[in-house]
Amino acid sequence: MGADSAALPAFRPAWWAPTGLLQTLAGPRPGSPAPAWRSETWPTPDDDEVRVHFIDVPRPDAPIVLLLHGLEGSRDSAYVAAAANHAAARGWRFCALEFRTCSGVLNRARRTYHSGETTDTAMVAERLRSRFPAASLFAIGFSLGANVLLKWLGECGDRSPIRAAAAISAPFDLAVCSRQCDTRYGGAIARRFLRTLIPKAIAKAAQFPDSYDADAVRRCRTFRAFDDLVTAPTHGFADADDYYRTQSCGQFLRAIRRPTLTITALDDPLGQPSAVPRDVLRESNHLHPLISRRGGHVAFLSGGTPWRPRRWAENVALQFFARQIGGT
Questions:
Q1: In whole angstroms, what is the distance from residue 96 CA to residue 22 CA?
Q2: Is 46 a catalytic residue?
Q3: Smaller CB count within 10 Å for the chain: N or C?
Q4: Same domain, 27 and 95
Q5: 288 catalytic, yes or no?
Q6: In this predicted structure, which of 91-95, 204-208, 210-214, 239-243 has the lowest mean pLDDT?
Q7: Annotated catalytic residue: which of 53, 69, 86, 297?
Q8: Does 297 qualify as catalytic in the annotation?
Q9: Cβ atoms of residues 26 and 301 within 8 Å
Q10: 260-265 and 164-168 beta bridge pairing
Q11: Catalytic-role residue among 120, 173, 227, 268
Q12: Span 253-281, mean pLDDT?
Protein backbone atom coordinates (compact mmCIF):
# COMPACT_ATOMS: atom_id res chain seq x y z
CA MET A 1 0.00 0.00 0.00
CA GLY A 2 1.34 3.43 -0.96
CA ALA A 3 2.10 5.94 1.76
CA ASP A 4 -0.64 8.28 0.55
CA SER A 5 -3.36 5.61 0.79
CA ALA A 6 -2.05 4.19 4.08
CA ALA A 7 -2.66 7.55 5.76
CA LEU A 8 -6.28 7.77 4.57
CA PRO A 9 -9.14 6.78 6.90
CA ALA A 10 -10.31 3.17 6.79
CA PHE A 11 -13.85 2.35 5.70
CA ARG A 12 -16.39 1.20 8.27
CA PRO A 13 -19.83 0.31 6.91
CA ALA A 14 -23.00 1.84 8.25
CA TRP A 15 -24.67 -0.47 10.77
CA TRP A 16 -27.73 -0.76 8.55
CA ALA A 17 -25.70 -1.91 5.50
CA PRO A 18 -23.11 -4.43 6.74
CA THR A 19 -22.89 -6.53 3.55
CA GLY A 20 -21.86 -5.83 -0.02
CA LEU A 21 -25.37 -6.50 -1.30
CA LEU A 22 -27.02 -4.11 1.13
CA GLN A 23 -24.35 -1.48 0.44
CA THR A 24 -24.87 -1.84 -3.32
CA LEU A 25 -28.67 -1.69 -3.09
CA ALA A 26 -28.56 1.49 -1.00
CA GLY A 27 -25.74 3.09 -2.99
CA PRO A 28 -27.91 4.87 -5.60
CA ARG A 29 -29.99 6.61 -2.94
CA PRO A 30 -29.29 10.36 -2.91
CA GLY A 31 -27.61 12.22 -0.10
CA SER A 32 -27.20 15.98 -0.26
CA PRO A 33 -28.10 17.47 -3.66
CA ALA A 34 -25.33 18.84 -5.84
CA PRO A 35 -24.77 22.59 -6.19
CA ALA A 36 -26.25 24.25 -9.26
CA TRP A 37 -24.83 22.99 -12.55
CA ARG A 38 -23.76 24.96 -15.59
CA SER A 39 -23.85 22.77 -18.71
CA GLU A 40 -22.00 22.94 -22.01
CA THR A 41 -22.20 20.84 -25.17
CA TRP A 42 -18.82 20.11 -26.72
CA PRO A 43 -18.36 18.89 -30.31
CA THR A 44 -16.27 15.80 -30.91
CA PRO A 45 -13.91 15.11 -33.84
CA ASP A 46 -16.34 12.54 -35.33
CA ASP A 47 -19.16 15.11 -35.77
CA ASP A 48 -20.92 14.12 -32.56
CA GLU A 49 -21.06 15.83 -29.16
CA VAL A 50 -20.81 15.25 -25.43
CA ARG A 51 -22.32 17.08 -22.50
CA VAL A 52 -20.12 18.42 -19.71
CA HIS A 53 -21.51 19.88 -16.50
CA PHE A 54 -19.65 22.40 -14.36
CA ILE A 55 -19.75 23.69 -10.83
CA ASP A 56 -17.74 26.86 -11.20
CA VAL A 57 -15.56 28.84 -8.83
CA PRO A 58 -14.12 32.36 -9.38
CA ARG A 59 -10.42 31.43 -9.27
CA PRO A 60 -9.05 30.37 -12.68
CA ASP A 61 -6.24 28.47 -10.95
CA ALA A 62 -8.52 26.49 -8.62
CA PRO A 63 -7.96 22.71 -8.88
CA ILE A 64 -10.37 20.89 -11.19
CA VAL A 65 -11.99 17.50 -10.59
CA LEU A 66 -13.13 15.70 -13.76
CA LEU A 67 -15.63 12.92 -13.02
CA LEU A 68 -16.38 9.85 -15.18
CA HIS A 69 -19.61 8.10 -14.22
CA GLY A 70 -20.52 4.44 -14.31
CA LEU A 71 -22.61 2.33 -16.67
CA GLU A 72 -25.85 4.18 -17.46
CA GLY A 73 -24.98 6.84 -14.90
CA SER A 74 -25.29 10.58 -15.40
CA ARG A 75 -24.79 13.88 -13.60
CA ASP A 76 -27.81 12.86 -11.47
CA SER A 77 -26.07 9.81 -9.94
CA ALA A 78 -25.73 9.96 -6.15
CA TYR A 79 -21.93 9.64 -6.22
CA VAL A 80 -21.68 12.57 -8.63
CA ALA A 81 -23.48 14.86 -6.21
CA ALA A 82 -21.31 13.63 -3.34
CA ALA A 83 -18.06 14.27 -5.21
CA ALA A 84 -19.32 17.65 -6.42
CA ASN A 85 -20.16 18.74 -2.89
CA HIS A 86 -16.74 17.75 -1.58
CA ALA A 87 -15.05 19.65 -4.41
CA ALA A 88 -17.21 22.73 -3.84
CA ALA A 89 -16.45 22.67 -0.12
CA ARG A 90 -12.75 22.97 -0.99
CA GLY A 91 -13.33 25.80 -3.44
CA TRP A 92 -12.42 23.54 -6.39
CA ARG A 93 -13.96 23.52 -9.84
CA PHE A 94 -15.92 20.37 -10.72
CA CYS A 95 -16.69 18.94 -14.16
CA ALA A 96 -18.82 15.86 -14.87
CA LEU A 97 -18.55 14.32 -18.33
CA GLU A 98 -21.69 12.50 -19.44
CA PHE A 99 -20.87 9.72 -21.87
CA ARG A 100 -22.72 9.62 -25.16
CA THR A 101 -26.44 8.68 -24.77
CA CYS A 102 -26.29 9.24 -20.99
CA SER A 103 -27.63 12.80 -21.03
CA GLY A 104 -31.10 11.71 -22.16
CA VAL A 105 -30.44 12.36 -25.86
CA LEU A 106 -29.53 9.81 -28.53
CA ASN A 107 -26.19 10.80 -30.03
CA ARG A 108 -25.64 11.26 -33.77
CA ALA A 109 -22.76 8.86 -34.38
CA ARG A 110 -23.11 5.10 -34.75
CA ARG A 111 -20.93 4.46 -31.74
CA THR A 112 -21.93 5.31 -28.17
CA TYR A 113 -19.72 4.52 -25.15
CA HIS A 114 -18.23 1.44 -23.54
CA SER A 115 -15.91 0.36 -20.74
CA GLY A 116 -12.72 1.06 -22.69
CA GLU A 117 -13.66 4.07 -24.82
CA THR A 118 -11.14 6.77 -23.88
CA THR A 119 -11.16 9.30 -26.73
CA ASP A 120 -13.92 11.49 -25.27
CA THR A 121 -12.21 11.49 -21.87
CA ALA A 122 -8.92 12.49 -23.50
CA MET A 123 -10.60 15.29 -25.46
CA VAL A 124 -12.35 16.73 -22.39
CA ALA A 125 -9.21 16.55 -20.26
CA GLU A 126 -7.11 18.31 -22.88
CA ARG A 127 -9.73 21.01 -23.32
CA LEU A 128 -9.88 21.59 -19.57
CA ARG A 129 -6.08 21.90 -19.46
CA SER A 130 -6.22 24.41 -22.30
CA ARG A 131 -9.01 26.48 -20.73
CA PHE A 132 -7.50 26.47 -17.22
CA PRO A 133 -3.73 26.20 -17.77
CA ALA A 134 -2.82 27.28 -14.21
CA ALA A 135 -5.09 24.71 -12.52
CA SER A 136 -4.16 21.24 -11.29
CA LEU A 137 -6.40 18.69 -13.00
CA PHE A 138 -7.60 15.60 -11.12
CA ALA A 139 -9.87 12.80 -12.36
CA ILE A 140 -12.18 10.41 -10.54
CA GLY A 141 -13.99 7.45 -12.08
CA PHE A 142 -16.67 5.09 -10.82
CA SER A 143 -17.20 1.50 -12.03
CA LEU A 144 -17.22 1.69 -15.86
CA GLY A 145 -15.81 5.21 -15.53
CA ALA A 146 -13.04 3.82 -13.31
CA ASN A 147 -12.15 1.28 -16.01
CA VAL A 148 -12.10 4.05 -18.62
CA LEU A 149 -9.92 6.21 -16.36
CA LEU A 150 -7.35 3.53 -15.52
CA LYS A 151 -7.11 2.38 -19.13
CA TRP A 152 -6.64 5.96 -20.33
CA LEU A 153 -3.96 6.65 -17.70
CA GLY A 154 -2.10 3.55 -18.87
CA GLU A 155 -2.40 4.62 -22.49
CA CYS A 156 -1.04 8.09 -21.64
CA GLY A 157 1.80 7.02 -19.36
CA ASP A 158 4.11 10.00 -18.81
CA ARG A 159 2.01 12.15 -21.16
CA SER A 160 -1.08 12.23 -18.93
CA PRO A 161 -2.50 15.76 -18.53
CA ILE A 162 -3.78 15.08 -15.03
CA ARG A 163 -1.97 15.40 -11.72
CA ALA A 164 -3.60 12.48 -9.88
CA ALA A 165 -6.59 10.16 -10.14
CA ALA A 166 -8.97 8.01 -8.11
CA ALA A 167 -10.75 4.89 -9.37
CA ILE A 168 -13.65 3.56 -7.30
CA SER A 169 -15.02 0.03 -7.80
CA ALA A 170 -13.04 -0.52 -11.00
CA PRO A 171 -13.86 -3.78 -12.85
CA PHE A 172 -10.26 -4.85 -13.38
CA ASP A 173 -11.43 -7.82 -15.49
CA LEU A 174 -14.51 -7.15 -17.62
CA ALA A 175 -15.13 -10.84 -18.29
CA VAL A 176 -15.39 -11.52 -14.56
CA CYS A 177 -17.65 -8.50 -14.06
CA SER A 178 -19.94 -9.54 -16.91
CA ARG A 179 -20.18 -13.10 -15.61
CA GLN A 180 -20.97 -11.91 -12.09
CA CYS A 181 -23.73 -9.62 -13.37
CA ASP A 182 -25.19 -12.39 -15.53
CA THR A 183 -25.20 -15.11 -12.87
CA ARG A 184 -25.41 -13.62 -9.36
CA TYR A 185 -28.88 -13.19 -7.86
CA GLY A 186 -30.41 -14.93 -10.86
CA GLY A 187 -29.00 -12.37 -13.31
CA ALA A 188 -30.82 -9.46 -11.65
CA ILE A 189 -27.82 -7.13 -11.93
CA ALA A 190 -27.57 -7.51 -15.70
CA ARG A 191 -31.32 -7.18 -16.19
CA ARG A 192 -31.35 -3.94 -14.22
CA PHE A 193 -28.87 -2.30 -16.60
CA LEU A 194 -30.40 -3.88 -19.70
CA ARG A 195 -33.69 -2.11 -18.97
CA THR A 196 -32.13 1.08 -20.31
CA LEU A 197 -29.39 -0.32 -22.55
CA ILE A 198 -31.80 -2.31 -24.73
CA PRO A 199 -34.14 0.62 -25.61
CA LYS A 200 -31.10 2.74 -26.48
CA ALA A 201 -29.74 -0.03 -28.72
CA ILE A 202 -33.11 -0.43 -30.46
CA ALA A 203 -33.23 3.32 -31.09
CA LYS A 204 -29.68 3.18 -32.44
CA ALA A 205 -30.67 0.32 -34.78
CA ALA A 206 -33.47 2.51 -36.14
CA GLN A 207 -30.95 5.32 -36.64
CA PHE A 208 -28.48 2.97 -38.37
CA PRO A 209 -30.57 0.09 -39.80
CA ASP A 210 -27.55 -2.02 -40.81
CA SER A 211 -26.12 -2.08 -37.28
CA TYR A 212 -27.57 -5.26 -35.75
CA ASP A 213 -30.75 -7.28 -35.31
CA ALA A 214 -33.06 -5.23 -33.08
CA ASP A 215 -35.37 -8.19 -32.46
CA ALA A 216 -32.44 -10.23 -31.16
CA VAL A 217 -31.46 -7.32 -28.92
CA ARG A 218 -34.97 -7.26 -27.44
CA ARG A 219 -34.48 -10.86 -26.34
CA CYS A 220 -31.17 -10.19 -24.55
CA ARG A 221 -31.13 -11.22 -20.91
CA THR A 222 -27.39 -11.15 -20.23
CA PHE A 223 -24.51 -8.74 -20.65
CA ARG A 224 -22.60 -11.29 -22.70
CA ALA A 225 -25.44 -11.58 -25.21
CA PHE A 226 -25.80 -7.79 -25.37
CA ASP A 227 -22.08 -7.24 -25.82
CA ASP A 228 -21.95 -9.89 -28.55
CA LEU A 229 -24.89 -8.36 -30.41
CA VAL A 230 -24.38 -4.63 -29.78
CA THR A 231 -21.19 -3.48 -28.06
CA ALA A 232 -18.75 -5.56 -30.08
CA PRO A 233 -19.96 -4.89 -33.64
CA THR A 234 -20.74 -1.22 -32.92
CA HIS A 235 -17.22 -0.52 -31.66
CA GLY A 236 -15.09 -2.78 -33.83
CA PHE A 237 -14.56 -5.85 -31.64
CA ALA A 238 -14.80 -9.40 -32.91
CA ASP A 239 -17.15 -10.48 -30.12
CA ALA A 240 -17.75 -10.03 -26.40
CA ASP A 241 -14.62 -11.99 -25.50
CA ASP A 242 -12.48 -9.72 -27.68
CA TYR A 243 -14.08 -6.66 -26.07
CA TYR A 244 -13.49 -7.93 -22.53
CA ARG A 245 -9.94 -9.06 -23.26
CA THR A 246 -8.73 -5.86 -24.91
CA GLN A 247 -10.59 -3.24 -22.85
CA SER A 248 -10.13 -4.45 -19.27
CA CYS A 249 -8.13 -1.89 -17.33
CA GLY A 250 -6.10 -4.46 -15.37
CA GLN A 251 -3.60 -4.91 -18.19
CA PHE A 252 -2.93 -1.13 -18.33
CA LEU A 253 -2.08 -0.62 -14.65
CA ARG A 254 1.69 -1.11 -14.96
CA ALA A 255 1.91 1.78 -17.45
CA ILE A 256 0.25 4.36 -15.18
CA ARG A 257 2.61 7.21 -14.26
CA ARG A 258 0.42 9.45 -12.12
CA PRO A 259 -0.50 9.03 -8.43
CA THR A 260 -3.66 6.95 -8.59
CA LEU A 261 -5.86 5.86 -5.71
CA THR A 262 -7.87 2.68 -6.25
CA ILE A 263 -10.74 1.91 -3.86
CA THR A 264 -12.03 -1.66 -4.01
CA ALA A 265 -14.40 -3.70 -1.84
CA LEU A 266 -13.87 -7.45 -1.63
CA ASP A 267 -17.62 -7.94 -1.16
CA ASP A 268 -18.46 -6.09 -4.40
CA PRO A 269 -21.25 -8.18 -6.01
CA LEU A 270 -19.98 -7.25 -9.48
CA GLY A 271 -16.46 -8.54 -8.83
CA GLN A 272 -14.48 -11.35 -7.29
CA PRO A 273 -11.61 -11.02 -4.81
CA SER A 274 -9.45 -13.14 -7.10
CA ALA A 275 -9.87 -10.59 -9.91
CA VAL A 276 -8.25 -7.78 -7.90
CA PRO A 277 -4.64 -7.51 -9.19
CA ARG A 278 -3.13 -7.06 -5.74
CA ASP A 279 0.48 -7.65 -6.78
CA VAL A 280 0.37 -5.07 -9.56
CA LEU A 281 -1.40 -2.54 -7.35
CA ARG A 282 1.14 -2.92 -4.56
CA GLU A 283 4.30 -3.10 -6.69
CA SER A 284 3.71 0.13 -8.60
CA ASN A 285 5.17 3.37 -7.28
CA HIS A 286 2.20 5.22 -8.76
CA LEU A 287 -0.75 3.12 -7.59
CA HIS A 288 -2.16 3.54 -4.08
CA PRO A 289 -4.66 0.76 -3.34
CA LEU A 290 -7.30 0.86 -0.64
CA ILE A 291 -8.77 -2.65 -0.47
CA SER A 292 -11.65 -2.97 1.97
CA ARG A 293 -13.45 -6.10 3.16
CA ARG A 294 -16.77 -4.23 2.92
CA GLY A 295 -18.25 -1.52 0.74
CA GLY A 296 -20.20 -3.13 -2.10
CA HIS A 297 -20.19 -1.62 -5.58
CA VAL A 298 -19.92 2.17 -5.90
CA ALA A 299 -21.36 2.45 -2.40
CA PHE A 300 -19.02 2.65 0.62
CA LEU A 301 -21.84 3.98 2.80
CA SER A 302 -20.45 4.84 6.21
CA GLY A 303 -23.41 6.39 8.00
CA GLY A 304 -26.50 8.50 7.71
CA THR A 305 -29.75 6.61 7.20
CA PRO A 306 -30.93 4.08 4.58
CA TRP A 307 -32.94 6.91 3.03
CA ARG A 308 -30.16 9.52 3.11
CA PRO A 309 -26.83 7.70 3.31
CA ARG A 310 -23.45 9.26 4.00
CA ARG A 311 -20.78 8.28 1.49
CA TRP A 312 -17.10 7.67 2.29
CA ALA A 313 -15.16 7.08 -0.93
CA GLU A 314 -15.75 10.47 -2.55
CA ASN A 315 -14.39 12.33 0.47
CA VAL A 316 -11.35 10.05 0.67
CA ALA A 317 -10.62 10.61 -3.02
CA LEU A 318 -10.67 14.39 -2.55
CA GLN A 319 -8.38 14.04 0.47
CA PHE A 320 -5.98 12.07 -1.70
CA PHE A 321 -6.05 14.81 -4.36
CA ALA A 322 -5.46 17.52 -1.76
CA ARG A 323 -2.33 15.76 -0.52
CA GLN A 324 -0.85 15.89 -4.02
CA ILE A 325 -0.83 19.69 -3.80
CA GLY A 326 0.17 19.92 -0.15
CA GLY A 327 -3.30 20.16 1.38
CA THR A 328 -5.34 18.01 3.76
A1: 27
A2: no
A3: C
A4: yes
A5: no
A6: 210-214
A7: 297
A8: yes
A9: yes
A10: parallel
A11: 268
A12: 96
